[in-house]
Design a protein that fits this description.
The protein is of the alpha/beta class. The chain is 39% helix and 20% strand. The two termini are 33 Å apart.
Length: 220
């Protein structure tokens, strides 16, 4: 479902056709969840960590076009709750761009209550000026997540592309196409939002011991 957004923010909300029961509900709901995820109960009645609901705020920081997404995993099902791009026009001062990034991410966090945050790691750039600008945008995004006490993890761009497309040199269009296919979306997200969704999927994959043999996660 596409919602209207202020001029500087392109947002998209995704909904699922099925309602998933949550942990902490009544006994009947808990039993229903156990049926949909057979390994929910371990010794002593402890719930399996990958049967609990987990939400991640994923961010692809950039001064002019910051992509973001909130993904939810319940058992083995993953869905996108929302995604969008924070667009800062060229006429806007850099300092105001940073404010816009922080404030919009604050809104996303308040609306969707993610549990953790995942961001794209720093990439190599030849220009010091570009590096400073990218670092500032990244700092605004990290600040917004940290102010809500979210744990923050970072993933290298090549690792994200490898996780989603299968090759670290994939183009943005390939990432967006795979995101649409993997999540069963009705439309292809814009490239920056697709990159953010890919970062979130990489976090879920890395956090899942059945899919990630190394278990390596870098916390910021």
């Amino acid at each position: 479902m596409c919602g209207h957004a202020p001029p500087d923010v392109n947002r998209q909300a995704a909904t699922s056709n099925s309602q998933q029961p949550g942990l902490g509900q009544s006994g009947a709901s808990f039993c229903l969840l156990a049926l949909t995820c057979p390994d929910i109960l371990l010794a002593g009645g402890v719930s399996h960590p990958h049967c609990a609901s987990m939400r991640v705020l994923a961010i692809d920081p950039a001064l002019r076009n910051t992509g973001y997404a909130v993904l939810e995993r319940l058992g083995r099902e993953t869905k996108a709750l929302t995604w969008g791009v924070i667009n800062n026009p060229a006429a806007r001062r850099q300092s105001q761009c940073l404010v816009a990034i922080r404030e919009e991410l604050h809104r996303v966090i308040r609306d969707h209550q993610p549990h953790v945050c995942a961001v794209e790691g720093i990439i190599f750039v030849q220009s010091y000026k570009t590096a400073i600008i990218m670092g500032a945008a990244r700092g605004a995004a990290l600040l917004a997540a940290a102010e809500h006490d979210l744990e923050i993890y970072e993933y290298a761009p090549r690792r994200v592309k490898q996780a989603v497309v299968g090759k670290g040199a994939a183009q943005k269009q390939q990432v967006a196409f795979m995101i649409r296919a993997l999540l069963g979306l009705t439309e292809t997200p814009p490239p920056d939002a697709a990159d953010a969704i890919a970062i979130g999927l990489t976090h879920f994959q890395t956090d899942d011991p059945l899919k990630n043999a190394t278990g390596t996660m870098t916390r910021v």
